[in-house]
Task: structure prediction
Amino acid sequence: MSLDPSFVGRTYPPTAPYQVGREKIREFATAIGATEPAYHDSAAARALGHPDVVAPPTFPVLITMAASQQIVDDPALGVDYSRVVHGDQRFAYTRPVVAGDELVCVNTIEEISNRGGHAFLTTRTDVTTSAGEPVVAVWSKLVVRGES
Amino acid sequence: MELSTRTFRVTRADLVRYAGASGDFNPIHWNDRTATTVGLPGVIAHGMFTMALVGRAVTEWAGAPDAVVEFGVRFTRPVVVPDDDEGTEITVDAVVKEVTEAGLTRLDVTARCGDEKILSQARAIVRTTG
Result:
């Protein structure tokens, strides 16, 4: 398995807006056992200066993982998703995601390398509101394992 | 900042709940047949579930659910979750590497399952003032 390094720098069209729901944040927080009131209770979030419940730090991956299918499914790039494992994950926040956000993702291929029979693909997803306000940048490194 | 060790028990039920909440239904996180077919010892936790638990430790240490400015990890070892009531346990520790004048604290985080480190280059920057 190897990926074409000439795809580095390619940026994909913005994704359709994702509506961040209050119940989805509560469901996610419950699933990870996070009980801080600001994840569950709008009044508690407002007391911290947020308009509605705050999402836990890794919540944006729900949105970016779906958005990055644009890259994974790009037939010209040719990623075999059945051989993909998650290598690295990183988030850099301008502000937390909150319920009521309408978020758009722009995916860019930052890095491609091929070594040891495996291909390494780093994607950056810039998550903004639909009005263009930056919220969080999300990097994922995917490893496409070779067929050894 | 008080950085006491955090431990998190992880069972199959937690993985099913995370799959539903996150939309990541990859069967290696709930089906032993699939997991062993692809060469894993058994069902493993979602890497992003492990990262979410580490995120809980970080926000608890920071004392605020909205304090995280940067957060990154490398997944180095899978967390195998046995099909029993005990599951497994993840232990999370951190040390402060730097406190900046801008009120940011940089943490180096260690996450273990048993004696094995499951992440490397696990780092977080949290806002600790104002």
User: Anything to note?
Assistant: The mean pLDDT of chain A is 95.
